[in-house]
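Data card: per-record layout.
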Amino acid sequence: MTAELVRGQNHTLPQTRLEIRVSAGSPVVAGATLGDERGTVRGAERIAHPASHRVPGLEVSRQAAADHRLAVDLDALPAEVHRVTVVLALPMGAGRPVSFGAVAAPFVAVTGLDGTEIATFTLTGLDTESAVSALELYRRQGAWKVRAVGQGYAAGLAGLFADQGVAEAAETAAAIQEAVASGLARSVTPPPRTTEGERVRHPAGPAAAGAQAPAPPVPEAQPAEPLGDPASARTEAPGGGPIDYAHPRRQTSAPPPPPPTAPPAAPGQPARPVAGDATGWSMDERLYNQIWGMFEDLARAVAAYRSAVDFAESRMDQELDRALSDPRNRIGGAGDRAREAARAKRDELTGRAREALERDLAQLAAESAVVEPALPAAYAGWDNPVWHAYRVPMEIPMALRLGDLRLGEAPDLRIPLLVRLPLERGIWIDSGRTASEAAASTTGDQLRGLAVETAVTLAARLLAVYPAGEFSVHVVDPAGAAAGQLSPLVGSGVLAGPPAAGAEGVASVLAHLTRRVDLVQMAIRAGAADALPPDLDTGEHLLIVNDFPHGFDDRAVTQLRYLADEGPSVGVHLLMVADREDARAYGPVLDPLWRSLLRITPVADDHLADPWVGHAWTYEPLRTPQGSRVLQQVLALVAEARRGGRR
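The structure for this 647-residue chain is written out next.
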């Protein structure tokens, strides 16, 4: 029976391998400290946090999120550790809540590996605090207990760490917030949370996404086995049955799930995939939710596999250490037999984990095979036949495909990267050299050319999915270095004007868009949208900036930052094509700009993170098939629809 704790109450823990689940109304940072008998934390190395997410016996999330799962193996803690304190903090940044009194009360649950709740605690009564010691696991007379704490700190993490005796409390708190800011900048934005709903799943039998490898005590990224962000993968239940690794509360839109359009699978067989197998008011919404469900499932399946492999390796090392620490095993063949037994167990656990992963990957691959052909143009790759039947739409779709994402364990399984429309943040296409294998085999000039081509294809997709005349594209190319790559946009006549060149051209375009943002914001604040000038284009605008910072003075840089911060809320979006290293000449003044943009690359690169587990996903940009004129044909139809609308 679950113990519902109140502040100060404790409860005995019946097991030592646990999950600690955190649910909050907005993103929070989850961490933990390891203290001695008095609760003193002997150094920053005894703190698990996003910048150092693993310590012995404990693993936490590597990013801020509204839901977390922390993995705890009390038997693996150092002998001098007697207290594990779970810490929550609000991430710092413009527009974020500054105190727990401004957000929903966080909920914390201690569970077994099978998901059974042992104790829960709701952190009510918080006000000005921005960090809180939520609960603690403590050792008493050889047994472990959990106590609800709920002690808040208006001074934030620095005050909390100082109270626990951390010598460099302020520096440690600053490092954590810096890591969180970097993680939020590289993380793909998840779908907005609305009414709870679940992706439709048909009975799949034991061969489907159920049985996983043995439960690792301290798993991989954030939510495999017992670990860090919302939801986690599972292993076997105490009764031996399979446990579903999928998120128990997949968020979708609200309507009831659609009826299955395929006959049910035979008993013991995997579910037959169906396109649109998710809730939603329209097929586009169902497909959108289904793709995000596949994204999440793949993240968690790989997290479970990596966790199991890590556990198998860790277990082998521990068994070898115990066996070889006995002098009797150093004589004769006892030591060799111990090594062979430990390695055999490692191989068995790893093999079982791989089998479970292969089953999950096969199911997801089958689902991808039926979903991809059913995608509308906004979600489809350029090689999808849907583009050959393209017509200018009458309304804006839910989302747009920016590229594909994949993981090393499943190189052939690609998940579409969808972003909601209208765009909530700008995009930065990094034209510089990165550490990826694809970038290493490409020259600098080729990378710059591919970056502009990527910008052109993204602009073309945005123009294609908006109704005629409701989306405008402006281009700033100060040195005229991208004339060749920009020719599809220029030649089709879809641009709002010729690409701006030189310092004067840059200043003119920035002044025009800055004025538009100012006027619309003033009209909104005054509640007088009908008072806008008649010549003001109220449609969405995209500014493509190539070769930054060439042609930009201090005033232009300030205007660019203003557009990046304020533009998206009033329909002005930024698409930067720039080498981050070239822009370092401006120093830290541009750091907020880079962090506010979604960074993508013109070649494959593993720099994006999912919002659940935090895996490093390889991003691949969308390319038109070689020799195809689909891009030109689509732009020609867009231009024709615009001319027709002006008649």
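Known properties of this structure: The first strand starts at residue 3 and ends at 5. The chain has a mean pLDDT of 83.

See the next section for split statistics.
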